[in-house]
Write the structure tokens for this entry.
Amino acid sequence: MLKRTISLTAVAAALVVGAVAGCGSNAQPIQVNLAASEVLTQAAQKTAQVSSYTVDAVVNMAHSEGNGKVQGRMLYQRDPLAMDLTLDTVDVAGRSLPGGAHAVLQSDAVYVKVDALKDLMGTTKPWIKVPLTEVAGSAEVNQYLSQIQQFDLANMTKMVTASQNVKSVGNESVNGEDTNHYSGTFPVDAAVQNLPADKQEQARTSLAELSDVKFDIWVAADGLPRKLALNGSKDGATLDATLFFKGFNEAVNIEVPPADQIGELPKGTTTN
């Protein structure tokens, strides 16, 4: 059950939380007369400049095995690269991960804190450290690393630009900020082609559960998104996610766990 839970969680959080954009500190205001497709294009360009941000996300799923919910937050820092992902709620098919999940990526290692994973690995420490060079040997740990990597918001924003039917819906306030609301759909196959070659297979695997994805995105005057909602379905499975963005280019505090709380991944572990 652990592997299934982690797999569904990774798909849900990776898909949804990853499909939105960060922002750039030297962004210029978008002109109100731009076509909706041009707004998305400019937003994708600006996200490549992002230095840091915070994302809050809620993901609801329905599947043949039951309903589920994933809720959490991620802090991102581009240089040097560091990420801190906290999943407060991980509930899939009526079963949950007690205590949720926490993963930190910094330097050349990922640190994972999941009670069930700790027991599976046979360590007494609350955190497990996995050098990135050894991640491929552990399917469970690799799921969390993939989950973190899917928060590459600049690349995922490029996917939204694959929409051929995006339109302006109107002006709305998001957390006290004035934004322009845009709505449309994007075909998964075409969206994946917008990504760098080394990112395409990972995105294609994560999005395999869905066909065309409906999105709503709220963009502020600086051309950067403040909210994104995604809806998708395939073969009876559905996904509904909402993400909020804040703290663009503000300092973030991402620290590795204390040394006395970290255990090493057992040598020769291959939990595939």
